[in-house]
Every structure is written in structure tokens, then in C-alpha cells.
Amino acid sequence: MAETTAPTVPADHLMGVYARAPLAFERGEGVRLYTTEGEAYLDCMAGIAVTALGHSHPKLVAAVKDQAEKLWHTSNIFRIPNQEKLAALLTAHTFADVCFFTNSGTEAIECAIKTARKYHWAKGHPERIDIIGFDGSFHGRTIAAIFAANNPSYVEGFGPPLPGFVGATFGDLEALKKLVGPTTAAILLEPVQGEGGARSWTEAQLKAIRQLCDETGTLLIYDEIQCGLGRTGKLFAYEWADGAAEPDIMAVAKALGGGFPVGACLATIEAASGMTPGSHGSTYGGNPLAMAVGLASVEELVKPQLLAHVREVAGYLNQQLSGLRDRYPDVVLDIRGKGLLIGVKLATPNREFMQHARDAHLLIAGGGDNCVRLLPPLTLTLDEAREAIERFEQACQAAQAKAKAPAQVGAA
Fold first, then answer.
1. Is 138 a catalytic residue?
2. Of these residues, 135, 223, 248, 369, which one is catalytic?
3. What pTM, to 2 d.p., does this model score?
4. Are 202 and 241 in contact (CB under 8 A)?
5. Are 230 and 190 in contact (CB under 8 A)?
């Protein structure tokens, strides 16, 4: 009798753009992921800051199930009531007046760039197209997003630089002032860089950039795709500047859908004044299924008790990681970031360290400047944080042992 088992699909049928770890997960619960073999891992990646409420959060599961039985898609030709509810919730808790919903963070960045340029065009200044970005940034993978960040490893091979994007040095405000000119449309930055090594702008720096934008008529765009929605211990990272560094436009995503693809571009009514019917759009953006889960996610993320919990757990993790830096100075060089966006700069190769962590059944993310990132669900308990530190220390011990081991000499 013929075999009826479905054939295994070879991995080599997938485009080779990922250096994947040799793990496959079939289910998750809270801060744990379980492989197809049933092994449990402590997840301090959260899908790269996406599953902020943990895996299989009952409220999100219920929202998806309930909406899936009603309506998935209609297109933006018609009103979508949950779009209006989620937009009202987001604007009530931010600087913004209006939202545009997307499927991803990079689409939210595209909308932010278009919004900024269209604003100046509508005001009679079509020459103001330049977007100033910073080294170490990551804004997504579309052509505009990669040139906005100007990371050499992401732009190589994709043609000549796009006009209208200007590179600046992270943290150098004097150099930034010299770059702002009559063709500048906006300054684009992550208040806390993710991929770039978890570097944070200080509150004083953000206030100075806000003042520069006000003085020059330049729009300020924040990319809070990774650092937003509770990750730093406030709903958005810019809030740490106490209302003195609010943006004109902001891109969010990742935690917005708790694992379901949802993004948004938020703006003041003035900054969005050039975006009129027909100037932008999306087939899937803001669809009923995405909005149901996005609404459920944000309703949880705005709770003050969750944000207080993030600050408490982040304080513990930073204290413990500083202790590991003192105990393993040949492995850990620096602790960076803000809240539960934690960067650990290493003396040993970060890819090797990530494997040591996986050997200890701890999942962490990589990052620029030879960092690894801890991006756990915001629901991580103190007991789970202690477990994460124990496993991270195991990785430190393995990295230290490898660094001290004598080099292998090949046979003659």
C-alpha cells in the first residue's frame, strides 16, 4: 500500500536570506517555546520584541478566534470599526491625532517618509525631501527603509543610493545641526536603537533635536517599532523626556499585534495635512482580523501595572547583568539599552554566544556592535528573570571556557 505521510519539504526550497538556527518550534506558552521534539526554551527574544504579552495570551487568542469566525477582510473601501477604536486608543495615549494602519514596521516607515515629504510639498516647499537618519539604525527592509538607515551591509548590491537620504552620526548633535538645511524634510531616529546595538539617545539629546526641528521647520519622526509599546517601561520611549521631545510622526509595529502582523504610522493632524484621499493606501493594512488582535493587545499594553512591572523586572535584569559583567570581564564588556530592550556588548563573537545560550535553552537575539539583545515578553516574572540570568551565566561560562581553551592544532 502506498505511503500516505506528507513528504518533508526541503529547506533548500526557501530563498537563502536567513542564517537560521537549527530549531523548529511547534507551540508556545507564556515565556516558553517548545520544539517539535518537546524541548522547552526560555524565550528572551519574543520574536524580536513582538510577542510582548507572551505566547498564546488568552485575550489575544480569543480575539483572533472570535474575529476569524466573523470577517477577515473587506479592504479600506469601507469603514472598519475596530480601526477607529484602535486609532482612538493609540491617539489617546500619545502625541498623535491620526493613524494609518499597515501590515509591518517597514510599511509604517514608508508611510512616515511619505507623510513628511508630502507635508512640505503641500506647504509649497517641494524641495524639502531629505530624510536625515543615523548610523546603527534599522528601519526595515524596503528600498527606502534601508537607505534611510544607510547600513552598508543592508544596502550593498541594491543599486546606487536613493536621493533624499542623508546619513548622520549617532549622538553627534553639532554635526547634525550642520546637516539640516533648506532641503531637509525630517529627522528620523529610534529613541533606543535595536539592531544597532541597543544604544539609547539621552533625554537631553532628544529634547535638543526636538528644539532643532522646531527652529528649522523640520519634522521629527520616531521609529518606535522595537522600543515602543511598553518595552522601555513607559508606553513609548519618547515619554521619558517628560513631554519635551514629542515627535510629529511615529512608526510602530511589533508588539502592536502581539505576534499578528500589524503596524501603524501615527501623526499630528498638522504633520499629516498633506495626506489626502489617494495619496497613500494599503490592501491589507487595518483589516478586521488584524484590528481585532491589535485592539486586544494595546488594551493590555497600556495598563499602568504592566508598565510598572516592566520597570521592576528590567531593574533586576540590569543589576544582575552588571554583576555578570564584573564576574566575566573577558566575555561581557557593557550593558546597554532601556527597560526590557537590553543590549550586552561582548568580547567574544556574538553568534557563538547565542549558540552557548541556546545550549542552555535560552533564546536571545543578536545585534550590531557585537551585542546580543534580551527582549523578553513584558510579562516575564521575577522568577523567570532569575532563570534567564542563570542560563545567561551558563553561556558566559561556556564562552569563557572556549576563549581560554588552547587552539586546536591540526594533525601533521
1. yes
2. 223
3. 0.94
4. no
5. no
**HSE-up of 296 (CA within 13 Å, CB side)?**
23
CA distances from 260 to 5, 24, 255, 286, 287 (A): 30, 19, 9, 12, 12
Assigned C-alpha cell, 346: 561582548
* 26 contact partners, CB below 8 Å, separation of at least 6: 34, 35, 36
Closest to 132 measured CA to CA, from 183, 167, 84, 174: 167
Cell of 37: 521534539
Looking at 101, 134, 138, 353, which residue is catalytic? 138
Please report the domains of the chain, with CATH numbers, ordered by start residue. 11-56+304-404 (3.90.1150.10), 71-301 (3.40.640.10)
Catalytically annotated residue among 135, 165, 170, 254: 254
Tell me if residue 101 is catalytic: no
pLDDT tens for 39-52 read: 999 999 999 999 99
Residue 205 CA to residue 211 CA, distance in Å, equals: 10
pLDDT tens-digit readout, 245-283: 999 999 999 999 999 999 999 999 999 999 999 999 999
| Amino acid type, 241 | A
392 is catalytic: no
